[in-house]
Amino acid sequence: MAMPDVLTLARLQFAFTVSAHIIFPAFTIGLASYLMVLNGLFLRTKRRVFLDLFNYWVKIFAIVFGMGVVSGIVMSYQFGTNWSVFSDKAGPVIGPLMGYEVLTAFFLEAGFLGVMLFGRERVGPKLHFLATAFVAFGTFLSAFWILAVNSWMQTPAGYTTNAAGQYIPADWWAVIFNPSLPYRLVHMVLAAYLTTALVVGAVAAWHFLLGHRTEASRVMFSMAMWMLVCVAPIQILAGDQHGLNTLEHQLPKVLAMEGDYDSHPEGAPLILFGIPNAAEKRIDYAVEIPHLGSLILKHGLYEPLPGLDTIPDDQEPPVGIIFWSFRVMVGLGFAMLGLGLWSLWARWRGELFMSRWLHRAALVMGPAGFAAVLAGWITTEVGRQPYTIYGLLRTTDSLSPVDAAAVGTSLIVFVIVYFALFGSGTFYILRLMAKPPHVDEEELQADAPSHAHGLSPAPVMEQTGDLPSQGGTP
Question: What share of the chain is helix, strand, coil (3-state, %, to 5)?
Fold first, then answer.
């Protein structure tokens, strides 16, 4: 079997490392905010359960944060080893932005992380809460700068070129706040919150199924389900707006997502499922709803929609991958909404902490946020092809002059090391999650009476106020 060419290997290497990296920030962004909320609730109520939950999740946060830093450093080196032409062409724009991420976000996180982990007794509860808030803000800043870089590559703006063919900033405000950044930032941050909520809910559901119906498990599950109920609909709306922005700036990507090989002058259908046939340029065995595609994308049943037949073949992204990754992302998004509505129904019936089928569903949905983030990232990045910088620099023209054997060897090493290192880290995190949070038993006895199935749900709901005000915060 012939060895893949150097371009394919370089793309596979970056796809592997960025996929391994993105799941960590997707978790730490939401988890840092969750820790901030728990810390704030402990300050306000002085209830030990919030402190116990903070101490429980802060250990997991520290491990995930460390793995995210390591995987991010490895990924950045590839700009020089495999994509040096891209680095040379786009360096004047993306270099300062990535530098700002280090100078602001990373320094802020690193500067206050130690205080958050070890400083409660040394600095006092209020300053400790402030340190936690700074770490949470740092994770948001990190997402902002990285998405500013990636969004500029998707919708470049505010640049000019010099004699060497480099892209030079002409207007930093236009570079940073390029047309797709607001939509992509909101979509990613909400995805991070939902990812964290699903993990927290799954951990609580696991302990419910094991019979650990402690107050800590109840608070975790209640907060996680409020997050799904309140944020999943907002995420669906944000995704729709992001899609409309992509339709305006990256038409081929949206057509690949929708599977619209042919133009539809009298209204496009919404293709729910099918098998993309790249050779014949059609969707085989398509299951579709007439005119609904035009209604979603153009807000009119009979609005015309062009197809990929209007796009030159050398500018057409690979439809098959985008078609299915988009459907995985959307399907998981609606599954999150369904789980949230189910929990709302169970809450109304007073069965939120007793419904074993709901707990089983929450446990199964635990990894769904990571899968949705990866599917969305694949849709975004593969949909940008054949460009590295959309409309400006092709991927084939971005590659370093390296041998396929060298890239292939390093890819194999990355796969082995990543699975060994991050696999062991993930195993340790799962072991931590398998242990229930420590809760002061005397406080539990004072706060809630016994019940045939553990603690009665009504007193806990009264004590936490059922946490409606935390619905928008993980």
Answer: 70, 5, 20
Q: Are the C-beta atoms of residues 237 and 338 closer than 8 Å to each other?
A: no
Last residue of a domain, one of 251, 284, 305: 305
User: Which residue type occupies 272?
Assistant: L
* Domain annotation covers residue 48: yes
In 10 A of CB 439, how many CB atoms? 21
pLDDT of residue 40: 92
Residue 315 · residue 251 · CB < 8 Å = no
Tokens of 456: 């009665």
For 3-42, letters b (16+ CB in 10 Å) and e give eeebeebbbbbbeebbbbbbbbbbbbbbbbbbbbbbbbbb
**Which residues face 300 on adjacent strands?**
none
* Structural domain boundaries enclosing 109: 6-224+392-467
Are the beta carbons of 388 and 153 closer than 8 angstroms? yes
Indicate whether 144 and 73 sit together in one domain. yes
Six-digit token pair at 57? 């999740």
Residues 274 and 401 reside in one and the same domain? no
pLDDT digits (tens, 9 = 90+) for 244-295: 999 999 999 999 999 888 888 888 888 888 888 888 888 888 888 888 888 8
- For residues 125 and 195, membership in a common domain is answered with yes
Number of domains making up the chain: 2
Estimate to the nearest angstrom the gap between the alpha carbon of 152 and the chain centroid.
Answer: 19
Could you give the CA distance from residue 187 to residue 154 in angstroms, rounded to a whole number? Answer: 15
Would you say residue 214 lies in a domain? yes
